[in-house]
Amino acid sequence: MSWIIPADKAARPTLWLVAALAIYTVLRQAGFYNFTAREIEGLNVLIQLVGDVYAVLLAFTIFVIWGQFTEVDNCVIAESNSLDDLLRFSSYHNADAQSEIRRAMANYVRHVMQYEWQALGDGRKEPQTDQVFAHFLNAVTSATPKTESEQFVYTRLFDMLQRISERRDQRVAKSLTRIPPTLAGLVSAIAGVLLLLVFVYPFHYALTGAVCFALVAAVLFLADFVMTDTDNPLKGVWNVSPQPFADLRL
User: Fold this and answer.
1) Which of 189, 187, 188, 215 is nearest to 201 (CA)?
2) In this predicted model, what pLDDT tens digit does every residue of 16-37 receive, in sequence order?
3) The whole model's pTM is what?
4) Is there a contact between 238 and 9 (Cβ–Cβ < 8 Å)?
C-alpha cells in the first residue's frame, strides 16, 4: 500500500489553492479586508461554531466508514478461512472428488481476485464470478459418498459450504456499502463554509493570512481525501488486501 496521495488527486486542489491565493492578494490590495475587520468578532464566533460542527461530523463519518472498512476486511479473512477449512477437510474424501473440489475452488478464487475484486471496487457485482461460485458449489455437493465415513465427510463439507456461501454474501454486500451521499455532501459543504470564513478573515498581515488559509485548505483536503478514499475498501491508497485468498494452498 502506498501512503502517497496520487498526483491526479492533488493536482486540481493545488490549482484551486493557487487561484484562491491570487484572488486573496487582489482583495487584500483592494481593501476588502478593511470591511471584514469591522466584523471580526462575528467571524471569530462563526469560525469556532462551524469548526466544532465540522469536527463532530467528520469524526462521526470517519468512525462509520472505518467500521465498514474493518467489516470488509473481516469478511475477506472469514471467507478465506472457511475455504481453507473446506479444502483441508476434503482431503478425507475420495481422490476424484477431492481433485474436482480443488480445481473448482482454484477457479473461484482466481475469479474473485482477477475480476470480482475490481468490479466490487467500482460499485457493481460481477455475474461471471457468481456462476463460477455456483460451479464450485456443485463440485462439492455432487460428490457421491460410497462409505459411511465418506457420508460423514460429505455432511461436514455441506455444512462448511453453507458457511462459505453466507460469508461470501456478507463480503459482497459489505464491499458495496458506501457512505450516504447526503452525509458526504454535508461534511464537504461545512468544510467549504469553514474555508470561506478563513478566507475572509481579516488577518493583520497578508502573508499570515495566506499561510493560514493554505494550511487550513491542506488540512481540509487531507480530511476529505481520507474520508473518500477509505469509503471504498477495495480501491484507493488504503484498501483491503485480497492476500488471504492468494495464501490459500491450491
Assistant:
1) 215
2) 999 999 999 999 988 899 888 9
3) 0.83
4) no
